[in-house]
Structures are given as C-alpha cells and as structure tokens.
Amino acid sequence: MSNPALTISSRTERGSRVIAPVGDVDLNAAPTLKAHLRTAHGEMAAGSRLVIDLAGVPYMDSSGLATLVESMQASRRTGFDLKLCNLAPRVRAIFEIAKLNRVFTIVPTLDDALAT
Amino acid sequence: MHDHTPNHDAAHVRLQIVSNPLLNSGAREMVASMAKRMGFADESAHQIALAVDEALCNVEHHGYRRDTTQPIWISLFAIGGLASSTGQQSPTTGIKVVIEDEARQVDPDSIKSRPLDEIRPGGLGVHIIREVMDQVIYEKRSASGKGMRLTMIKLKPAESAGTTPHAPQHPGAHP
Prior knowledge:
The structure holds 2 protein chains of 2 kinds. In chain A, strand 1 and strand 2 form a beta hairpin. Chain A is built from 4 helices and 5 strands; from the N terminus they run ββαβαβαβα. The termini of chain A are far apart. The mean pLDDT of chain A is 94. The radius of gyration of chain A is 13 Å and the shape is globular. By secondary structure, chain A is α/β, with parallel strands linked by helices. In chain A, strands 1-2-3-4-5 form a 5-stranded mixed β-sheet. Chain A is 39% helix and 22% strand. By secondary structure, chain B is α+β, with helices and mostly antiparallel strands. Chain B has helices at 24-37, 42-63, 125-132, 157-160, and strands at 13-18, 71-79, 94-101, 135-140, 148-155. A 5-stranded antiparallel β-sheet of chain B has the order 1-2-3-5-4. In chain B, a hairpin with a 7-residue loop joins strand 4 (135-140) and strand 5 (148-155). In chain B, helix 1 (24-37) runs antiparallel to helix 2 (42-63) and helix 2 (42-63) runs antiparallel to helix 3 (125-132). Chain B is globular. Classes of the chains: A alpha/beta, B alpha+beta. The A-B interface holds A 1-4, 24, 26-28, 59, 61-63, 65-67, 69-70, 72-73, 90, 94, 97-99, 103 and B 21-22, 24-26, 28-29, 32, 46, 49-50, 53-54, 56-57, 60-61, 116, 119-122, 124-125, 127-128, 131-132.
C-alpha cells in the first residue's frame, strides 16, 4: 500500500470492456476511478460486459468499495454485466468484511471474467 | 490563542497531519510499520492500518467536510509497553490508537454503520472499523463544541482470544 497515484487503462478484449486501475484505491484516488468508470458506464449497452481487473490494486478502502458499488448500480440500471477479477487477498478481505463478496460477481482471473 | 493540541505526552508515537487525503497512505504505512514493530503479524498490522485509514476518511469527508487544511492527530500506545532492546521478546499485548480532530461534534451514539443489506455507496467505514478492531469508542473531545476523539484498541490474538476487550491501564489511557 505504497502507491498514492492511480493510473487506469481501458481496452476492449474478446468483446468486453476491461478497465484496469493500478495503485491504491483510497479516498485520494477513488474520485479518479469514479470519473473513469462513469464515462465507461455511459458507453455500455444492455447485454455488454464490463470487467474491472484489480490485479494492480494492492490496497482498497471503503472509498474504493463505494466507487465499485456505484458501478454495480449502473450495471443494474443499464443491464450490462459487471465482473471483478484478480483481487489481491487484502482487497478481497475488505469485500468480505463489507459482505460485498456476496453481491459482486468476483472471479479469480481475467480469463475467467472474459469467458462466456 | 487557545492551544487545541491534545495532551498525549505518554503516546509512544504521535503524528499530526492536515486533513488532506493525499496523506492517508503515508499515515497508514506508518501505523502498519509501528504495529509490526510492536509485534503484530502482517495481517493484523494491515487491519489496524485499514481502521486508521477509514477513521481518517470519516474525519476528512464528514468532520471537516473536505476542508484539506485542518489538523488531525494520530497517537499510538503500545499496551504493555515496548521491548527495551532488539531481540527482547515484545511485552506489547495490544495497541491503542487515538485519532483526534477539531471538526464539528456529533452525538457519538449517532455514529453507526449502515445495514449491510442496503447496497449503496458509502457508510461502510464505521462497519469496517468495528469489524477489524476489538474496541471502538467515539467521544466528544471537549464541551466547547469542537473536536471528536476516536479510541480504537486491537489486542494481539493470544490476548484477544476468548476474552472481553478491555481498556489498557497506563499513563496515556483516556477516561
């Protein structure tokens, strides 16, 4: 948990939109991710898929969780599929503490997320 | 001018930061590092740092309403004391973390986590703090109408297993 800067890449892979933040997602960085995801939400159609690849996120707090919950709400409104993948153990732990692991579709790898 | 600085001379570590979220990563790294020095395992030290991070977020976001210039004090107390030399077995049985501010006061009883079955952004910080720490106390710092104090205690697993968390007895203990 040593990287206060957040960089975000976005690409299309196997027909899915893949967004990959790199860095800690905390109160300082969450607004950057939120803005990026809001743009992506506006481009998603019903039946499409958004994958958030968290392989580059070593740390997340409740600000990050709130940002991802907003994505889930957007996915329910629009009807796109949302998947999270590659959660580090400590990131997965905070989902479990908040009981959000029961709500999100969380899969081990990007391959799993992109599988139909 | 009245000095609002808290009197925590007995703290083993004390840090003052301004309420800028940019500094939270440094603060939690310091807390995790100190907790490890006190003999906590990596995961426990990480949880203590997470609780501190969530507390800082609440002060910055709700207490100071995103004003990034206001003071926050973080004090760490090694419950049971510190080892006096390298290699000595740590006498520390737990850690007490005190976070104080000069933000607007709220009724401590009103500080609650939201029901987890409500799926909406926000409101999870207090739940996370209560989940990862053994004891959590919110209180008003003074009757002057300004400032809150959060006291959090985490005991080492051997001490916390099967026991009720208790307040430490040492010179830095809060009432």
